[in-house]
């Protein structure tokens, strides 16, 4: 019996988010440059997207580049941007064929022109997809997002579009870049670190965490299914008692 067959289709995590960490250490362990690790890391995305589609996951969010990652050496940053641009041009046709719809979250204004164009082309090309929604977090950080949302709320309040009493959890969520996307059910972090690194703080209020020592380039179909199976062994109580859940 394959791992996919063991997954209970009635209890799938609707939304899986992944902090794809460990490219640099994957490369170092092989005596390679960090850039080689990023290259392998970008390749690994394809298998995981296909595996998520095969398991009928509705939303997959990948943390590809954080606001803080802009502080890395400039050659590493530009290398990463180039890898992403190539990946968009290489993968868009297949994503479209497989019904994947691509979206992005983050501060796209900070992306270099060629990266922004490649991303926008991919989003436009795949807009009609009805299968997996692939959300790419690029130049993203949660504190940036929360501050931006607060500014927009303040501006709408000043304009009189929004009344103070209207600002509840639902309205607030509509001002985030994840508007319309359900909160993640399962958050996976590869690479052995157990931290959230400024990712989806609001949206992860009730997420299930799954940490694995595997470096991102080594993560694939089977490891994704192991994470889903572990998720299915958990009981999500949302503050209630176990008896209430049964
Ligand atoms: C994750 O791998 C990729 C990005 C953050 C862009 P890292 O580059 O952080 O790899 P490590 O953590 O140094 O091994
Ligand atoms: C988190 O990885 C960001 C991404 C995976 C894009 P980092 O490697 O940048 O995280 P920290 O700095 O170790 O927390
Ligand atoms: Mg890292």
Description of the structure:
By secondary structure, this protein is α/β, with parallel strands linked by helices. The chain has a single domain, classed as Undecaprenyl pyrophosphate synthetase. Helices cover 44% and strands 14% of the residues. It has helices at residues 3-6, 23-28, 34-54, 74-97, 113-125, 142-159, 169-174, 221-232, 242-245; strands spanning 15-19, 59-66, 101-105, 133-140, 186-189, 208-211. Strand 3, helix 5 and strand 4 form a beta-alpha-beta unit. It binds 3-methylbut-3-enyl trihydrogen diphosphate (2 copies) and magnesium ion.
Hey, roughly how much beta strand do the residues contain? 5-15%
The number of helical runs is 9
The counted number of beta strands is: 6
**CATH-wise, what's the superfamily?**
Decaprenyl diphosphate synthase-like
Mean pLDDT rating: 98
How many separate domains? 1
With strands numbered from the N-terminus, the spatial order across the biggest sheet is: 3-4-2-1-5-6
Main β sheet profile = 6 strands, parallel
Fraction of helical residues: 40-55%
| CATH architecture assignment name | 3-Layer(aba) Sandwich
Question: Would you tell me the structural class of the helices and strands?
Answer: alpha/beta
How far apart, in Å, are the first and last alpha carbons?
Answer: 28 Å
For the record, the CATH class is Alpha Beta
**Gyration radius over CA:** 19 Å
């Amino acid at each position: 019996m394959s791992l996919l067959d063991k997954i209970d289709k009635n209890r799938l995590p609707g939304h899986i988010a992944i902090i794809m960490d460990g490219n640099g250490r994957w490369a170092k362990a092989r005596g390679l440059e960090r850039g080689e690790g990023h290259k392998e890391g970008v390749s690994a995305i394809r298998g995981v997207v296909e595996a998520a589609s095969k398991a009928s996951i509705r939303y997959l969010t990948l943390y590809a580049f954080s606001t803080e990652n802009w502080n890395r050496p400039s050659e590493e940053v530009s290398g990463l941007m180039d890898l992403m641009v190539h990946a968009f041009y290489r993968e868009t046709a297949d994503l479209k064929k497989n019904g994947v719809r691509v979206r992005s979250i983050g501060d796209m204004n900070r992306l270099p022109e060629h990266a922004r164009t490649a991303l926008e082309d991919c989003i436009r090309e795949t807009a009609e997809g009805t299968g997996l929604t692939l959300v790419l977090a690029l130049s993203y950080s949660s504190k940036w997002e929360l501050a931006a949302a607060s500014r927009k709320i303040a501006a709408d309040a000043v304009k009189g579009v929004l009344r103070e009493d209207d600002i509840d959890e639902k309205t607030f969520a509509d001002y985030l870049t994840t508007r319309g996307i359900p909160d993640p059910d399962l958050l996976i972090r590869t690479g052995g670190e157990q931290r959230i690194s400024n990712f989806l703080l609001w949206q992860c209020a009730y997420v299930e965490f799954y940490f694995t020592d595997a470096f991102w380039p080594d993560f694939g179909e089977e490891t994704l299914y192991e994470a889903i199976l572990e998720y299915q062994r958990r009981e999500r109580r949302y503050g209630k008692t176990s008896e209430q859940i049964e």
